[in-house]
Every structure is written in C-alpha cells, then in structure tokens.
C-alpha cells in the first residue's frame, strides 16, 4: 500500500467511532432513501464494497447472503458492531476495492454506496466489481456526484481542493459515465438533490470477457 493510501486509511480509522453521529443529519435528509433503493434491489450472493460503518446493513432483504469489505479496520469494526446489533449475518473481509480477494464471477449482486467518491481509482474499483460479478449480475450504486447545476459544479470543484488531499473525497465524479464501455447495461438511473446524488442499477454483460 502506498503512503498516500495508508494516510487515507488512517484518516477513516480515526473517524470510524464518531462517523455515524456526525453524519446523522445528512443520512436522514439525503442518503437513507438511496440506501434503501439500492439494497432493496440486491439478490442472492451479495458483495458490498467499502461497507463503512454498516449503514446499509439494516436495509437488505433478509434472504440475501451478504459479504462486505472495507480497507479501514476501524470502519470494519464499526460495521461488525452494527451487524451484531441488528442480528444480520455478514462475512467481513479487510480488503481494497481496487483488488478484491475473490475469484471471478462469485457474486449475484455487487453494491457500492457513497464510497466510490473516496476510492483512489474509481475505474479500477468498478472493473473489479464487474470481475467478481456473475454474467447478468446486478451492480447497484449510489453516490454523490458532479451536479447537473452549473453553480453547484463550481462549488464542488472548489471543495475538492481541500477534500481530496485531506480525505480522498471527490465531488466531481460520476460513476455511470465511467461504466461506459465496461460491459454493462443500465437498467435504472436516477439523479436527485439538484443532480448531486445519483443511483444506478446496472447489469453485467453476459459476454465471457470484460475490459481490463
């Protein structure tokens, strides 16, 4: 792991214990509805990439067989505690979204919510998600993205000047555009909150090979 990546892991480790409290207002107003939207569409063997403190866990259907990864040990500990509190069976792994420790075509569904904004290489994370997804499997995303409103886009670019070096968080990405050419079909896509939140239901191509 590079020094910059190690610094990011340390940043999220330090904030794991207080993260849910600090984010409670934003969760209620902006994020929870999209978490429910994404998790309701999960089916079968499901991988959540960058599980964080486990905010999604209570929203999955009970019959989903859930595996979750995060590169922050502190966040994983918080997610384990959340799973225990709600009685949700989850298999947790300490892993990097850009190098998933699973064989190809392992999962029926891959989920990433409000996390691709923080991974160092968004495309690499999406390629890995598709690699471990079975043909015609579901890729379910929600994230804050570059706004469809010009003045908010300008604000987001200014905010990134501080947020990227501090915590690796980007506000001007849009995963649905990164997915172009990666062997997926977009089943559903919605933009909310002046275009700053986007949720996507995509399916992996049934073709044998995916782009690298």
TrEMBL record:
Pfam families: Methyltransf_11 (PF08241). It comes from the Bacteria. InterPro entries: Methyltransf_11, SAM-dependent_MTases_sf, Thiol_S-MT. Residues 47-140 form the Methyltransferase type domain. One of its GO terms (molecular function) is S-adenosylmethionine-dependent methyltransferase activity. The keyword Nucleus does not apply. This is Methyltransferase domain-containing protein. It comes from Actinopolymorpha singaporensis.
């Amino acid at each position: 792991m590079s020094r910059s990546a190690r610094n990011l892991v340390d940043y999220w480790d330090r904030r794991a214990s207080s993260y849910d409290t600090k984010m409670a207002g934003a969760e209620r107003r902006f994020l929870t509805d999209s978490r429910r939207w994404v998790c309701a569409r999960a089916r079968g063997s499901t991988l959540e990439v960058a599980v964080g403190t486990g905010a999604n866990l209570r929203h999955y259907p009970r019959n989903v067989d859930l595996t979750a990864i995060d590169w922050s040990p502190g966040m994983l500990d918080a997610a384990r505690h959340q799973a225990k509190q709600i009685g949700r069976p989850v298999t947790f792994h300490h892993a990097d979204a850009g190098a998933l420790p699973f064989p190809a075509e392992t999962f029926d569904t891959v989920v990433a919510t409000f996390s691709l904004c923080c991974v160092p290489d968004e495309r690499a994370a999406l390629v890995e998600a598709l690699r471990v997804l079975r043909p015609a499997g579901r890729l379910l995303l929600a994230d804050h993205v570059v706004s469809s409103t010009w003045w908010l886009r300008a604000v987001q670019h200014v905010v990134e000047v501080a947020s990227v070096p501090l915590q690796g968080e980007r506000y001007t990405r849009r995963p649905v555009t990164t997915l172009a050419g990666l062997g997926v079909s977009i089943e559903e896509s919605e933009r909310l909150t002046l275009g700053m939140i986007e949720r996507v239901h995509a399916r992996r191509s049934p073709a044998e090979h995916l782009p690298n």
